[in-house]
From TrEMBL:
GO biological process, one term: lipid storage
Official protein name in the record: Lipid droplet-associated hydrolase
Subcellular location: Lipid droplet
Substrates-to-products reaction catalysed: a cholesterol ester + H2O = cholesterol + a fatty acid + H(+)
Main subcellular location: other
The family this protein is said to belong to: Belongs to the AB hydrolase superfamily. LDAH family.
Recorded GO CC terms: lipid droplet
Keyword terms, alphabetized: Hydrolase, Lipid droplet
Source organism: Pongo abelii (Sumatran orangutan)
Domain of life: Eukaryota
Amino acid sequence: MKLVLIGHSVGSYFTLQMLKRVPELPVIRAFLLFPTIERMSESPNGRIATPLLCWFRYVLYVTGYLLLKPCPEKIKSLLIRRGLQVMNLENEFSPLNILEPFCLANAAYLGGQEMMEVVKRDDETIREHLCKLTFYYGTIDPWCPKEYYEDIKKDFPEGDIRLCEKNIPHAFIIHFNQEMADMIADSLKDDLSKIGNLSWHYHSLRTMRCPSPQILKPPERFSSDLLPTYWWKNQISRD
């Protein structure tokens, strides 16, 4: 069995941690998409999010419970539908409990932990596994700006470190999931050719579309960071 790891955003940090902690995994390629693997709190978005998530988190908790807990379900549903309409997502997503106070509290806690934990780039792990890593940075990414791409490109000039030329945003899963899936499929051709039956694998990757969250069962509804992982897992299981 061979593995391909695909991490998006902080999922890229988790991917490096997997390679570091379980180096014996039979990984042939790891894609780190819009990777937040360093200095999250110093990024343009991080400078705004850090004080909110780390310092004023408890104020958010109290405000959320006071305003949302007594709010009728119909009002919450109306707010959610209106928000999705503004984002042109009304036909793609069916969020559940998105305005529940405990969801907001957990999301704020998770975000705060990311700001505090993702600080220094793990150059040792990157160097050890560089031959199997593909980094993909954005040009308009407020979580890992172009400066971070330039820094890692300078430190690892021999690595497969790419800069997006299509202005795809950090949250690509919302509108650009198929473009990213096609890019990954194209990039995997050489790796898959080494493990046999390239044509079947490549055809499957190019023809199987990523699922929209509304077709997933409730326990399978992941964040945008994990949805590509769900999709990839299912392609491998079909093999």
